Amino acid sequence: MANPSVNDAEGYGVSIEPAQVDLGETYWRVVRVHHLTPDENQGRHDLVAEVLDENGKPVPEVRLRVAWPGGEDTLVAPAEPAGSFALFKGQACAIAPADAAGDRVVGLHSDHPEENGGNAPGQHSFRVVWQRAVKKVFNHYVLFGAPQDPQTQANLIIALGYILRFKPAFGFRVEEAELAEHVTIIGGMGAVSFDVQDCLEAAGCWVYRYEGDSRSIDRVLTELQKSGSPFPA
Predict the structure, then answer these.
(1) Which fold has domain 10-134?
(2) What is the average pLDDT value for the chain, to the nearest integer?
(3) pTM above 0.70?
(4) Which pLDDT belongs to residue 62?
(5) CATH class for domain 138-227?
(6) What are phi and psi of 140, to 5 degrees?
(7) Which of 22, 41, 67, 161 has a 20 to 30 A CA-CA distance from 104?
């Protein structure tokens, strides 16, 4: 789950509406929205849906509701192959789990301009993937190494502008970081080990790591502040 680009279809007008769930509640979280490239699509106009469990394994027979102005239908996402729904001309769809709380994806349609090498108007497809997740306490946590480490102290000073800009929770405890949707690690493996990163990813966190000398870390964090997003594109 390192450095994900969850929705690469934003340029096609597709967005994710987060589920309204309480902290600690289990729900279906969108972990991927992908616009198929011409090579992947091969002239189709499909909405492909997949549903995964906490360990990334396909969950069979999950009902998804596809809605568009004037109509709706139910799509069942089996384990293999992935469930699919044909997107016809003029049909702008939204899709969400039908029987449980989950994120909703809106703005899905095939009426986009032709792209080099394929994907003509009416021949655009999208893939949406949900995964079972638990609503976290924090949206974003910045994890540093041991507080007594001089390099950690330097990294904390370097990151102050980033922290003030995006206002994440931050600290030095893995147990706190596991309660966040997104975790930014600042420091190398000597500060926060691979084992810790594996634990965070197993807890369902999206993990980002910035390491190197002070100048390198400062450069990356400064660029993120300029971009207006705490996470890389």
Answers:
(1) Immunoglobulin-like (2.60.40)
(2) 91
(3) no
(4) 92
(5) alpha beta
(6) -145, 135
(7) 41
